Each structure stands twice: as structure tokens, then as C-alpha cells.
Amino acid sequence: MNNPFRLTIEGLERVIMSLQQKGYDVIGPRYSDGVIVYDRIHSIDDLPAGFVDELTPGMYRLTKSGNRQFFGYTLPPQSWKRFLYPPCRELFTLRKDGRSFGLTPKEDRSPAYAFVGVRACELSAISIQDRVFSSGDYRDEAYLSVRRRNFIIAVNCSQPAETCFCTSMGTGPKAGAGFDIVLTEIINGESHYFVAEAGSDAGTSLMEGIGAGGADESDVGAADETIRKASAAVTRIMDTSDLPELLAENTDHPQWDDVAKRCLTCGNCTMVCPTCFCSTVEDRTDLAGRIAGRTRTWDSCFTMDFARVSGGNFRISGKSRYRQWLTHKLSSWVEQFGVSGCVGCGRCITWCPVGIDLTAEVGAIKRGSTKQESGGSR
Amino acid sequence: MPQRRNAGKPKVAVFKFASCDGCQLSLLDAEEELLDVAGAINIAFFPEASRRMLRGPYDIGIVEGSITTPHDVEHIRAIRKSCGALITIGACATAGGIQALRNWKDIRNFVHVVYASPEYISTLDRSLPVGSFVHVDFELRGCPINKFQLLEIINAFLNKRKPNIHTYSVCMECKIKGNNCIMVARGEPCLGPVTQSGCGAICPSFNRGCYGCFGPMESPNAPALSARLHELGQTKHDIKLAFRTFNAYADAFRKESESNEQ
Questions:
Q1: pTM recorded for the entire structure
Q2: Would you put residue B114 in left (φ > 0), alpha (ψ -120 to 50) or beta?
Q3: Is A303 close to B168, i.e. CB distance below 8 A?
Q4: Do the bridges between strand A25-32 and strand A35-40 make them parallel or antiparallel, or are there none, so unpaired?
Q5: pLDDT over 90 for what percent of chain B?
Q6: Whole-angstrom Cα distance, residue A63 to residue A45?
């Protein structure tokens, strides 16, 4: 750890105040109607102190525990994607002007966001979307502009859920990179504080600006121990060995039929996935046809329209759509972006209404790999 | 004067069969947009709104209600012939409506119980959607329909473009809106995963499960949802009743309610 700080609870409040003074829209976890959501926060009083969540396939329950921990939950339903890559975005308007027309691009008015409470798996997800939106022919300038102005305070995970498998994907529970400040929350008897580390110059200057003191060896030891325990508590395993090849070679595996019987093709998994980035554009008009506008909205490879092209639809069955999602996420994504599309956050497992578990699907395909059984025939 | 004012505007007619009128009233309910709509189309036949009743042919026919009598069958065939585009609106017109609950019983028994002189009653044995009798160009779902979707259809027709009406699940709408999933977070039964979006996910937005008012989504896997509802404590009877409401006779919902019949 480079120059760790010890941040008191009041110190965290000063961090939030300082971010607000710098003009950031501070977004963090807060309680809302039975779940944790990422939303605007104004002070530490907005943080979901004492809430713990239980996440299992197809089930989420939030309860109030006796302790004072601010970040004692694991993961909320929706990720930071909502702010970085909003579900609906107006792109431009067209106005008819005699025989010609004028185009007005929609100005990007998104604020500078400071995120508080980003988990290690979510940092990985953000770095994956950074790649997606900054590479090749499809640079998303609006996304990149939000990211350039983005300040991130990560919080190391202290209690992974049953649906988590960050250790398999190499993304957590300890935040590795991509933050300005990372915190580890420590509750030790009466004392409640954070061990903080800066990950950027902006992070260092903010910590120094609020007058945070240095952490001593025992503080750092307590933080390390928290992370070690969290890491040991991750029980779910995704077997990633040769995973891209395994899925690419098993497109006719009977497991796809099996999962199709259970899959609702509702699209929830793609909506909650912090890396899924598919969108569609919709054109609207006024009644008179003088003004038109184009909006981009989140789409999903589970919808019928997604694969509807001139002449037909190339993914009619639920089977082909689930297979498309999983093989893209875990296999062809690697080819496309040089990294897996899965960070092991487990949201798709928790928020699938019928609890389909991608780690189990991969396991079943691995056990009965048609390649192993039939010597590589397709 | 009205003739000149309406010159060149598409003639629109609104017809009603077995229904509650709620869907066609959505057009009158479009308060802010109504003047624009009235300016863009010639409302030629809309008995609920105006005494002015112009003869066909019409450019657009908007039809509410299900077909329940032999007279209805003749009438809808005549309407089809007089309309360029035929748009059916609401669960009655697109799935047979709540009155299709009678499709599982012998209609003669009802007629004998309800009417003093049953011999005067001439009715079909089932309540069926308009699309069972004539070609329909667009089916707008909902009980009732969403007025913004109706305006979108009219708008798309006027501008000769594809209407932006999604056929995916209510879940997509919930997630785009940022709603909590009440099925996962509360364990409450919800038909959202098998129901078509379009309502704006109204019920889940108020922490109620989806009732399926917009009928089956594009690729409904109702048996998979039922299996989960059963795990959440719903009996086969509960599940049967959940699927047997406004869109009871829509194929996927009908089959699922029947397979949960004991």
C-alpha cells in the first residue's frame, strides 16, 4: 500500500462535502424501498448504514443488521452503467426547413459524477466498458466524456454474496486499479474508520485536502485481514480454464436446450449486467412530420427485434438467444475486446426471476463437452 | 366548411364491439395532444365523440372490442372492406377480452340463467379477437391501451414510418425505468417476464406484481414462470387464475391456465 490514510467517519463526510464543493454530482448507495440503489447522496447520513443483503439465484433480501457498517451490503440490483451509459439518450433532432432539413445534435449535459462505493468487480466492469466504447469504429464520445470527468471512490468488499464469483474472474474482492481513492471499512469494537489509499493524483490531493492522517501498521493489517476474509468467503466458482474455446466448440451441446426450457427471455440478465452494452435507436416524429428525433435506448440480445433483419430473424428460439448471450459474454467477447465480458458480480444470477446460474450452465457444458465426448466434432 | 378543413387528411373511423369503451376513450383522454391529432386527421366516424358520422371508405379503422355474435362477424367484415388500415386496440379486440372467460363454459347455460327469453339471444359460442375473422394490420395491446401508444400508431401511420411499439417483456421496461424487481426482491408473484411491455410497468412501479394486462410478450415461456411462481408459494389454482384475466384467451396465457387446471 502506498501511503495509506486513516479516514474517520467525519473524514468520509468531509470527502463527500469536498466532492460537492468541487462541483461533482455525488452518487452512492442508499436505501430505497427494500433495495440498495445508486443515487444522489448528500452526506454520510444517506448511506445505507447497517443494511445487509442476501443474494441467491433469483432472490434478493435486504435486512437491517445491528452494526453500523456503511458498506455492509454486497451489490445493488443496478450497476453504475446507469450513470455512465444511461438507458435512454436523445441523440439529435431534425427540423424540416423548406426542402432541406437541419440537424441539431443533442448537447451532452451530463454532470461530472463522483461515485462512492464502487466494488472491485464493478471497477473491472467499468474498465471493460471503457474498452468497448473507446475502441474501433464505435467510439462513444458521450460515454468517454462522462468517464473523463468521473471521480471514483472504491470500497473493498467485505462480504461477498453466495452469487459472487469475482475470485474466479480475477476481479475482486480487492480493488486493483481504476479508482481515485479506495476505502476499506473497519469496525473494531468501538472504533469505526476506513483505511484509504489514493489511486490517482486527484485522489491524493483530495485526501490531503481534507486533512486525513496516516494509517499505522495495525490499521493496514486490519484492512488486509478484511480483504483476506472476504476473498475466502467467495464460494461460487466459474471454471474459466479454456472457457472461450469450450463454449465455441459446444454450440450444439444439449445443455442449451435444457437452459432454454427455463429461460424466460425476459432480458433481465442483460439489463443488470454491468458490461452488457447493446442498444437500439428509435426515430420519432411530431404529428406533422416537421420535427424528428433519434433516441438511443438499452436493448438486449434476448429481444426479438435484436436479430430481426431484412428477410427474417436469425435468432427466433430462446435457446439461440441464451446461447448468443453466454457465448458472447464468455467467449467471443475475448476475441472482440481482448478480455472476458464477465466480472463475476453475479447480478445475472440474482436478478434472473427463475434463478438461472451461468456458472452452473458453464459447468454442465464442461462436464458433457461434446468436444471431449466426440473428439472435437461439431 | 368541415369538408374543406379536412381536405387531404386521412379519414379515421372508430368502431366498437364487445368492450367497455375504455380503450377508445384513451383517444379523448389524450388531452394535450388531442387538438394536434384532430388537426392532423379527419375524425369521420367516432360515435363516442361526435354526432358527425361520415360514410366510408376510411383510411384508418380503429376497432375496439371482441367479436361475440353472428352480427358482429358480418359487421367486422364490412368494416374491413371499408378501411385501408385496420388497427385493433385493447385486450378485447386483440385477445377476446375478459368476456372470453366464458369460452371455457357452455354459453347456453349463461343465456338461460341471464335472459327471461333466451330464444331472442343469438351469440357465438366464444368471445374472439377481431383477428380471428379478418386481417388486422396492427394489434395494439393493453387493458386498457396506453394512450401514448395509440398516438404513436397514428403518428407512425401519418408519417409512413414503423411504430415504436416494443413486444419485449415488462421486465425490460422495469429495468430501463430503474424499478425494483418485486419478484426477486420481495418474492411476490409477477407476470412481467411473460407479459408485453407498453404500460410503462405501472404495477411494478407501485410495488405490485404485473397482472398481464398487455398479454403475452413476443416469446413467452409461461411454463418456466409458473414453475417459479409455484416455488414462491402459488398453488396451481392461483397460477390458473393469474393467467385467466383480461388476456385469458391469448394463446400462451390460455395454454398456461389450462395446464394449471386441476
A1: 0.95
A2: alpha
A3: yes
A4: antiparallel
A5: 90
A6: 18
* Whole-number Cα distances in Å, A115 to A118, A153, A318: 7, 6, 36
DSSP states of A157-170: -SS--TT--HHHHT
To probe the interface with A, which of B42, B171, B205 has the most A CB atoms within 10 Å? B171
Q: What is the DSSP letter of A66?
A: S
User: Are residues A80 and A39 in contact, defined by beta-carbon separation less than 8 angstroms?
Assistant: no
Bridge partners, residue B17, by sequence = none
Q: What is the pLDDT of residue A377?
A: 33
Within 8 A of B228 by CB-CB distance, chain A residues are 58, 353-355
Report pLDDT for A136: 80
Q: Do B192 and A289 touch (CB under 8 A)?
A: no
A17-to-A6, A24, B27, B246 alpha-carbon distances in Å:
18, 10, 50, 52
Measure Cα distances from A239 to A167, A242, B120 in Å: 11, 9, 72
CATH top-level class of B2-158: alpha beta
Query: What value of ipTM does the predicted structure carry?
Result: 0.94
Beta pairing, strands A312-313 & A308-309: antiparallel
Strands (E), chain B: 11-16, 42-45, 58-64, 83-89, 138-140
Residues written for chain A: 378
Contacts for A68-72: CB closer than 8 Å, 24+ residues apart: A68/A187, A68/A192, A69/A158, A69/A185, A69/A187, A69/A192, A70/A12, A70/A44, A70/A185, A71/A29, A71/A47, A71/A117, A71/A155, A71/A158, A71/A183, A71/A185, A72/A48, A72/A158, A72/A159, A72/A185
How does DSSP assign B91-109, residue by residue? HHHHH--GGGGGGGS-HHH
Angle in degrees, 0-180, between the axes of helices B22-29 and B147-158, rounded to the nearest 10: 70
pLDDT, tens digit (0-9, with 9 covering 90-100), for B141-182: 999 999 999 999 999 999 999 999 999 999 999 999 999 999
User: Of A194, A183, A209, which Cα lies nearest the Cα of A17?
Assistant: A209
Model pLDDT, residue A107: 87
CB B185 within 8 A of CB A231: no
Q: Which residues of A touch B221 (CB under 8 A)?
A: 261-265, 318
Domain ranges of chain B: 2-158, 170-259
